[in-house]
Amino acid sequence: MGSNAPVGVFDSGIGGLSVLHEIRRALPGESLLYVADSGHVPYGEKSPEYIRERCVLITEHLLAQGAKALVLACNTATAAAGAELRERYPNLPIVGMEPAVKPAAAATRSGVVGVLATTGTLKSAKFAALLDRFASDVRVITQPCPGLVERIEAGDLDGEGTRALLQGYVAPLLDEGCDTLILGCTHYPFIKPLLLTLVPESVSLIDTGAAVAKQLQRILNSHCLLAEGASRPAEFWSSGDPEQMRQVLPRLWGETAAVRVL
Ligand code: DGL
Fold this sequence. Notes:
Elements: E1 7-11, H1 17-26, E2 32-36, H2 48-64, E3 69-72, H3 75-88, E4 94-95, H4 101-107, E5 112-117, H5 119-123, H6 125-134, E6 139-144, H7 148-153, H8 160-175, E7 180-183, H9 192-196, E8 204-206, H10 209-222, E9 235-238, H11 242-252, E10 259-261
The structure holds D-glutamic acid.
């Protein structure tokens, strides 16, 4: 596989575009392929078996397009399918993601950290192991956010319904004294402006998009797969309504682009 081959990135929907942004910022020379599994969103309420099947199918598609590496731009998919994908594709560099518990535990001053994530991520063995490893000295309060991903998929980033839903999820965390909130789902960075209106200035919001881009850089470098020269425009697929994704791309990706059906 040549170093100028593209990097394949996917999520249950458009949330992973928040990660794609960070990859483009850190690695402007890389050509990018993106799959939104919007016909099967939300992953957060699906079984691990179902998510694993979807992840294999999408990985096969990205490999057929010539991907040299894979980024699971989805915390829920990483928790459910990351290990299986690594086992199935031992020669494929794979970068997954997980809620930023370690940096949050280091950053909190109140000693109370809140995690906003999907039900699937918070229920996973991978997340339990993450807490065991990095959160023994802090109190971590988890908050599943059913319904939020669907609102973001629908393009409602700051409407009254989204605000009320988010307020209901965040208020109990603030009441418990959280001063650090982990955005443990790649959809949530898109509602960061709304979230900032709901929390005091003293509360820090932490997400992992930039760390994932750095990790991708490290892993490509170690496989001698960093691209040389100019990148091609990103290519997009959706298993949902491609027209709906095409319409949100200018707002969430910053460019217009064609979206193909997966
Ligand atoms: N964006 C995904 C994540 O990071 C999950 C959203 C969903 O529930 O589909 O966890």
